Amino acid sequence: MKRVAKILSFISVIAILTLFISTVVMAAGDPTGASYTSVTGKETLSDVANAASRAQYSANFVWIMITGFMVFFFQCGFAMVETGFCRGKNAAHTITMNLMVFLVGAIGYFLVGFALQFGGSGGAVGLGTGGSVLNGMLSIPGLGGILGYKGFFLQSGGTYDAGIYALFFFQMVFMDTTCTIPTGAVAERVKYSAVVIASFFISMIYYPVFGNWVWGGGWMATLGKNFGLGHGVVDFAGSAVVHSMGGMMAIAAAIVIGPRIGKFKKDGTARAFPGHHIPMAVVGTIILFFCWFSFNAGSTLNAGDFRLAVVATNTMIAGAIGGLVAMFYMWGKYGKPDPSMTCNGALAGLVAITAPCAFVNAIASFFIGAFAGILVCISVAFVENKLKLDDPVGAISVHAVNGVFGVLCVGLFADGSYGDGINGVAGGVKGLFYGDASQLVAQLIAVGVLIVWGFGVSYVFWKLLDKVWGIRVSPEVEIEGCDLEEMGAYGYPDFQIVKSELDFQKADDLYLSKLKVKGTSLNA
Known about the structure:
The protein is an all-alpha fold. The protein has one domain: Ammonium transporter fold (Orthogonal Bundle), CATH 1.10.3430.10. The protein is built from 17 helices and 2 strands. The chain has a two-stranded antiparallel ribbon with strand order 1-2. Strand 1 and strand 2 form a beta hairpin. It is globular, with a radius of gyration of 26 Å.
């Protein structure tokens, strides 16, 4: 005890001496930060204006970069949700796809995609010189722009510019979400190489072309200015451009690739394949929810736009009520609060509010999220039981169905309090319930283009890829699990993975002619 007392006494003396020295010697410091300025007292009015302008640009750059960093973390959320909802024998395959699509998408968008989407957009007002550089747009007379052509390799057309690089970074992580969505719909039976090819297609052509029409100053954005349809197609943060496009790609992929072995019985009823790690999926959902605040609020592209607080709050309300309603719906209908559908309900609410989040009030956000929570539950059952599409994670219902719903919500619930000058049209964005039916017409046109371009082009792509390359693993690989054969590594090498007889050995399995497995009960 005496030794401990001596040590404590010594430490106390040292602490007191340190405090005394720091107080005396460091007295010349500036704890308030008041001296941290380059002001000399000789500044002109022009100097003050330049400093204020630079401060605003600085805030915008920091805002867009930090929110972009957080949107990138979407990748972690998607990876965990999809992997958790799949079976353990495909864990390494599924989670690595979610990393790979970013690697491929970033390069494809860098090489070609950004230029096609934003090469004629004029850039972002709060990020500097983009307007004088991103001015290359191919147009159809009488209709409007269809493609940009400046910014290939972030070099062509003088695009080596800090503001343009910031815009690229933010928009790239949005595009990557579209790349990720289809992987969930084809999980557990898709070739890894096919997803690599698809990700290049999405990032270089599929996503940028539609994105140009809505966000890049293209013809859908100018439907208001050229044809008097509200403010043209309005999609604040991507219910259409990001989520619906990814969802349409998911629908086409699920149709072409077909269901997992054993998913449907001979009588047409579906068999459940439980996800192997629901806690992982729930954590992934929480990550996505958190990142969605940046996804939506960051889309102001302007730290000085105080509407970002409304955007973030609307996002929270819609996502929360979406998950809650889905939980109670499943609880009431099936007797248990299904964890997976609670997750999908929250995600559905978030997808649905993404387009209208800046243009609606909290009450509208509540109803949008609540309806989305019910809609996703109904849609999942309809897609599986009526359309006979096998979507392991519910990507079609969450992103395609509720993405389209979100696009329409702009045309219904926008209250006119925000959006003055968007797409070159004066006044706030108003929907049908606030007196502007023409805005709903513009949004319906967007839905039509989503079907024609989003689904139609992606269906052709998947069919061609299946013919030329093949998009599905062999039946033997699917039954064994995609991890070792496709990836060369197990997701769980130290655990015994259950490879359920439901995959292959049930007499009531649906005959799948395209698999042509001989000598088994599946195709007996």
